[in-house]
Amino acid sequence: MRRKALTILIVASILASTVPAAALTSNPEIQTITPDPSLQPGGVNELSFQVVNDGQGAEDETRDAHNVHIRPRDVGPIDVETEHLYVERLPDGTPADLSLKLNVPSNIDSGTYRIPLRLAYEYDSGAGTDVERQRTIYLPVRVDSGPRFDVVDTSSTATVNGQGTLEVTLRNVGDSAARDSTLTLSSSAPDVQLGSSQSSTRFVDTWEQGANRTFEFETTLGDSAAVGNYSLAAQIDFEKPSGTTGSTPSLTVPLRALPEMTFSVSDVDSSLRVGETGTLSGTVTNTGPKTAHSAVVTFPDPGPTVTPIETSVAVGSLDPGESAPFTFDVEVTSSGSAGPRQFDLGVDYRDDDGTSRESDSIPTRVEVGEQTPEFDVEAVNGTFSAGSGGEFRLTVTNTREEPVSDVSAKIYMDSPLSSSDDEAFIDELGPGESETIVFQLSAGGSATAKTYPVKMDFQYDEADGDTIISDTYQIPVDVTASTGGGLPIVPILVVVALVVVAGGVLYYRRQG
Q: Into how many domains does the chain fold?
């Protein structure tokens, strides 16, 4: 029996040595590979890494993993901004390139951290069915010591369609000083410029641990910019005390775009009249948001029939909400028309940087009155009896708001009225002043008792030296019937007739 059993064992051993062993296959084994696990505190880091399916052991082959879902989780102070990653197929030994966005606070302690990665995937069991698996693996990262930076404060005076200054204060919150640091601030918004381009740099030779640095940037906002917040990107390149160099992740710097400088016109009052020089007055208010330095209210050319005597009025600097009065002297020509008119006033000013700026137009509605006579003419004595004459006295009043001089007055009339002295002269008349002038006027004896017109006009000089011919005025003159004082016409005619008759009788008698 022993000899037989030994024979069987020897045969089995020979057979085992001559038949090759079957290949073995292992289930998926997913791991992470991080070429550079270093993180920079103070902003968002994009960390590149790989996942690889590589079984551990003596097996010859690892099954493919497919439909691999990766859901990262936060760890400690590190905020993982990437919520989900996906790999369709992960074969044996072939890595897949992935990345995570990690928000690393500036005050984080240096050291090594492990980011949890929750995996869910499937693989072929080898028996024709899929197997689902879930597990957690870890991605190691490292926070090195050295300078770190944080945005402490920002303020901006930039307005839409304007300029201003952006102040940015940063602090070195790391555990060492920085040398030869360069701050680069950039904008991705086309309506925001820093200086003359989309980016600007500042240099600091030594930036001690815990020290603040404030940087100023000239900022220009386009006319299509919107009021509100914009995000600028800042990055600091530096050298550590050890001599090695480093760069911060992108730091977010907020920029507040302020509204355009705006102004309003209230208490508007107008004495404008056709053919006269009047005033346009009102109150201008700085409705913000910044001080308007050396402000000037402007009155651009309103057209051919309206002429401002002065086109600008200085009102001084106006703080937000502050108001100031203004007055323009304005001439409206005789060819102008009465009624409502709209003028587009404006404000020229200097901003906080001393740059000249111009506001949008301020529509201002005023009423232009009908043309009024230059003079008010009233007869002192306007009644004459038929067949009589005498002084025709008139009171002339200057109704304008400016003086007139060298006033020549002339009267015109038709029969039965006549004049032997139809001109008069006034040296000067101030606004509202009156003076009486005298003409000689006669009414014919055959004049019918009624009212007759006497026409009159003036030639005068305005305050600016222009010589003006006035419109024609009409003054009523009343002619009444004769009231006696001459020879009685009817009795005379009777006497004449009797004399003629008597003479005839006497003649005939002498002839007989």
A: 4
Residue 16: per-residue pLDDT:
39
- Plot region of 6 (φ>0 → left; ψ -120 to 50 → alpha; else → beta): alpha
Find out whether 101 and 80 touch, Cβ atoms under 8 Å.
Answer: yes
Are 114 and 165 in a shared domain?
Answer: no
What six digits make up the tokens of 310?
């002065």
Q: Which residues pair with 165 in a beta bridge?
A: 218
The Cα 225–Cα 206 span in angstroms is: 37
SS3 of 59-125: the string is CCEECCEEEEEEEECCECCEEECCCCEEEEEECECCCEEEEEEEEECCCCCCEEEEEEEEEEEEEEC
**Residue 166 in this model has a pLDDT that exceeds 90:** yes
Q: Is the dihedral of CA 311, 314, 317, 322 positive or negative?
A: negative
Model-wide pTM > 0.90? no
Q: Locate 15 and state its tokens.
A: 């057979």
What pLDDT shows up at residue 262?
A: 82
**75 beta partners:** 78
Q: 495 lies in a domain?
A: no
Split at pLDDT 50, 70, 90, the class of 496 is: very low
Kindly state whether residues 231 and 332 are assigned to the same domain: no
Q: Which of 265, 397, 396, 242 is nearest to 343 (CA)?
A: 265
Q: Are residues 388 and 352 in the same domain?
A: no
Which of 116, 143, 170 finishes a domain?
143
Mean pLDDT of the chain: 85
| CA quadruple 483, 486, 487, 493: dihedral, nearest 10 | -50
Number of alpha carbons in the 13 Å side-chain half-sphere of residue 68? 27
What pLDDT score was predicted for residue 511? 52
